[in-house]
Amino acid sequence: MNGIDFVERINTLLRQKRISKAEFYKDLNLPNNATTGWGKRNQIPSAETVYKIANYFDVSMEYLMEGQFLKSENNNELPKEILNLAYDILSLPPMIQKIIFSIVNTVKESEQ
Hints:
Elements: H1 3-16, H2 21-28, H3 34-41, H4 47-57, H5 61-66, H6 80-90, H7 94-111
Helix pairs in contact: 1-3
């Protein structure tokens, strides 16, 4: 993942949705040259900013970061809420992640 690809996906979404960069920056309270800076420095913004951008465009963080959608076992695209939740969990400390995974596994086992 690099900042140039990330910015290109944002630019594509802006064109598709006919949103100006000025409107995008204003709506998300970003500096007026945010995407230019990310592209020039070849970096992506913080996870919080990526999350806000994903919600703004109604796409998953996975799409913004990697340009593709994760698929479920039956090859359907996973809802963006599920993907964003997964990113939220992965941003937590490892011990908290283990607790969450344990809870999920317990619930899964109780439903079988």
